[in-house]
Amino acid sequence: MSVLEKAYELGQEILASEELYDMKHAEQSMMQDLEAQNIIQEFDTKQKKYLEMQREGLQLTDAQKQEVADLEKRMLDNSLIYSYFQAQQKFEKVLEEINNIISQAISGNDSCSDECCSSCGSCGH
Q1: Does residue 43 contact residue 72 with C-beta atoms inside 8 Å?
Q2: Three-class DSSP category at 123
Q3: What burial class does residue 62 get, using C-beta atoms within 10 Å of its C-beta: 0-12 exposed, 13-18 middle, 19+ buried?
Q4: FRET label pair with 43: which of 1, 27, 57, 61, CA 20 to 30 Å apart?
């Protein structure tokens, strides 16, 4: 089997993973909720505005910084948004572990750290 075929096979396994399913399901639930949509839209609007201000060399006021912190708290206090963030972090961790395993294989480093061995199982530990 060629490298590209293996890459495709890995992609199919990732597509079928519980972590990706959970993330997509959480995203769908979040996007169907009007309150969650409003919070996300408000956060995105403020974030774009404040990033543009910073690019122009302007400093955010304490009130603006507090406004961002309050919006972040509102996002995390919303159970649907929080569930999505949690699912997204789990999926990203899987991708990071995959990248670490590939990197170790490419470098010829077959020894795993304790962190790797607890999750990948590739070294038999």
Answers
A1: yes
A2: coil
A3: exposed
A4: 57
Residue 2, helix vs strand vs coil: coil
Q: How far apart are CA 67 and CA 22, in angstroms?
A: 31
Query: What pTM does this model have?
Result: 0.78
For 91, other C-beta atoms within 10 Å of its C-beta total 20
Name residue, tokens 């912190």. Answer: 69
DSSP string, 53-100: HHHTTPPPPHHHHHHHHHHHHHHHHSHHHHHHHHHHHHHHHHHHHHHH
Per-residue pLDDT, 54: 93
Per residue in 8-64, pLDDT tens? 999 999 999 999 999 999 999 999 999 999 999 999 999 999 999 999 999 999 999
